[in-house]
Amino acid sequence: MSGPHDLAFDPWDPAFLADPYPAYAELRARGRVVRYEPSDQWLVPHHADVSALLRDRRLGRTYGHRFSHEEFGRQAPPPEHEPFHTLNDHGMLDLEPPDHTRIRRLVSKAFTPRTVERLKPYVENLANELVAGLVRDGGGDLLADVAEPLPVAVIAEMLGIPEADRGQLRPWSAAICGMYELNPSERTAAAAVRASLEFSEYLRGLIAHRREHPGEDLVSGLIAAHDEGDRLTEQEMISTAVLLLNAGHEATVNATVNGWWALFRNPGQLAALRADHSLVPTAVEELMRYDTPLQLFERWVLDDIEIDGTTIPRGAEIAMLFGSANHDPAVFADPGRLDLTRRDNPHISFSAGIHYCIGAPLARIELAASMTALLRQAPTLALAAEPARKPNFVIRGLEGLRVEVR
C-alpha cells in the first residue's frame, strides 16, 4: 500500500473536487483497497467490492449496538457535539438491526409506494409552476429557482410542515449535513449542533400538535405507526423526520444541478434528449451515475474482514467510493462517456442492502418531473455562466447554476 502523498485522491483540493474521476481511475488501478491516512480510512473504489460490502453484515453504520467506544478503540465524540449525535444516531441510516429493522418497518408503513405515487400530480404541478417562473424571468439560478424549492416543498408537504415554516428547513439541513464531510471543522460542528437543537425543538412542537390534530401527513403516520406493540419513540420520530428531509432533498437538489451541468457540457446528448422526451427515465439514471451526488458512504468494521489479501481490522473505517464505483469500466462500458440511452446501468447512487434509499422512488419522480418541465417549457435553456462547485467532497454539488431562456 502506498502512502497518500503520491495519490491524486485529495478531497480538499479544488482541482480534485472539480473532477475526481481521473483520481478514482488511479485508485482502482492501485488495487481493491487503499489506506488513506488523512481521513484514517480504507478507500474501496471498485463497483463489485462496494456492492458486496454494502450488504456485508460484518460492517455497520454504528458500532454502539455491540461495543463501547473504548472496546472499539475509538474516542467518544466531544460532549458539546452531543445534540447532533442524539439526532443523527436515532435515524435509521445510522442504526443497525434490530433497531434499524424495527424503525424502517414502521417508517415503511407511512412511506408506502402508494403514498409516493399519490404525490406525483403535486410534484409535476409544482415542477411546472417553478419552471414557468424561470421562463417568465428569462432565466435565473436553476438551483435556487427550481432544483431546491421542488424537493424541499415535496418532503415538507409529506411531513405536514406548514408553508410558513419551510424557509428554515434548508439552512438547518445544510448545517447538519456539514458533519458528513471528511474531518469537519469545529465551526462546522458548532453550526450542526445549533441546527440540530433548533430543528429538534421545532419538530417536537409539530409532533405534539399532530398528536392532538392528526392529519394525512407522514408525521401523523409516524405517530400512528405500530407493529406488534412496537412504536417509534419521540426521538426516533424526530430523527426520522430530519433524515427524510435531509436525505429527501440534498441528493435531489445536487442530482438536478450536477445533471444539467453535465448536459450543458455534452450538447449532443442534450440535443438527443430534447428531440426525444421518452429518454427522461434512462437520462435520470445515467446523470445520477455520471456525476454522483453522494460520493462516499462510510461503514465501521465490526469484525475483521479481508479484501484482496489485506486484513482490515475491527475498529477501522471503510469509505466506499460511490463515484468511483459508478465509473468502474468492469461494469459500465466507456464510463467516462455520458450516454442517456444507457440501459444496463446498475449504479449505486441510492446505495444497496439494508440502507438502500427508502426515498429512491420519490427522488426519481422529482428528477423526472423537473427535467420534463424544463424540456417542455424551456427548450432553448442555455448556460449563462460557468458554475462554481461547492467546496465539499462527500455531498457533491454546485453553488448555483445560472441559466438563460433564449
UniProtKB/TrEMBL annotation:
A GO MF term: oxidoreductase activity, acting on paired donors, with incorporation or reduction of molecular oxygen
Which InterPro entries does this one have?
A: Cyt_P450 (IPR001128), Cyt_P450_B (IPR002397), Cyt_P450_CS (IPR017972), Cyt_P450_sf (IPR036396)
Q: Does the keyword Heme apply?
A: yes
Highest taxon listed in the record's lineage: Bacteria
Q: Which controlled-vocabulary keywords does the entry list?
A: Heme, Iron, Metal-binding, Monooxygenase, Oxidoreductase
Which family does this protein fall into? Belongs to the cytochrome P450 family.
Q: What is this protein called?
A: Cytochrome P450
**Species of the source:** Streptomyces misionensis
